[in-house]
């Protein structure tokens, strides 16, 4: 899968500080069971199996000792399964307190990255079943010269633009269609999103003074980089990289885990 170019020294940030309210478990999303393990454990295993990270930094809900212990247990799992004769050293696993927003959590993690880190992948713990080859595609694109790169899949639904109805029309329907987006130009964006570290730090510094409305409009790190005028490239993602947000998503993820080949052995 490697394009033969030297890969940058890479850290992976896992954003795992979400509340998970829409899942309805009454606990942070990263702690919700997926099969026999927590969502975060699956995400950690996927990152480690990809073998692209010198460091894995996890942004957790502040004070969540359960998830801190889960990360410590995973570090032990890694050490127990590692052969000292293997070519790739074990990644350094660190945790930080996340913030009130996703961007704040990412900034907290960026401040904790090891010296010498050249590139960073920002990954949602909720995309716990992302196949390893997606990580490789992102890192190989960075190695080829991209400053920012995202995995994405084509949009299969027709997408309409709408506006709220007013006056007498509001009794007919709450919204009115104003146009149809060209589906062939649309992509659903996934994680991990990869960046040269200096570029992502610059993007977050520029966004630090956003007001509440501006901050709410930013839904991923690639948007912050776009606002700098930096080109963002896209590689093929995977339909298996679903984001676990609702109870239905969790059911689908459970089904993928129980598939005959297993999520990590199906090429996309």
Protein described:
This protein has 268 residues and is an alpha/beta fold. The protein has a single domain, classed as Alpha-Beta Complex (Spore Coat Polysaccharide Biosynthesis Protein SpsA, Chain A). 31% of the residues lie in helices and 21% in strands. Strand 4, helix 2 and strand 5 form a beta-alpha-beta unit. Helix 1 crosses helix 4. The relative contact order is 0.17.
Provide a brief overview of the structure.
The protein has 268 residues and is an alpha/beta fold. It has a single domain, classed as Spore Coat Polysaccharide Biosynthesis Protein SpsA, Chain A (Alpha-Beta Complex). It has 8 helices and 12 strands.
What is the structural class? alpha/beta
CATH superfamily (homologous) name: Spore Coat Polysaccharide Biosynthesis Protein SpsA, Chain A
What is the domain total for the residues?
A: 1
Gross geometry: globular
The SSE order reads: EEEHEHEHEHEEEEEHHHEH
How large is the count of helical segments? 8
The CATH architecture category equals Alpha-Beta Complex
Overall mean pLDDT = 90
Percent in helix = 25-40%
Overall CATH class: Alpha Beta
* CATH topology heading: Spore Coat Polysaccharide Biosynthesis Protein SpsA, Chain A
Give a count of the beta strands, DSSP E runs of length 2 or more: 12
The main β sheet shows up as:
8 strands, mixed
Catalytic activity: 2-C-methyl-D-erythritol 4-phosphate + CTP + H(+) = 4-CDP-2-C-methyl-D-erythritol + diphosphate
Pathway: Isoprenoid biosynthesis; isopentenyl diphosphate biosynthesis via DXP pathway; isopentenyl diphosphate from 1-deoxy-D-xylulose 5-phosphate: step 2/6
InterPro entries: IspD, IspD/TarI, IspD/TarI_cytidylyltransf_bact, ISPD_synthase_CS, Nucleotide-diphossugar_trans
Family: Belongs to the IspD/TarI cytidylyltransferase family. IspD subfamily.
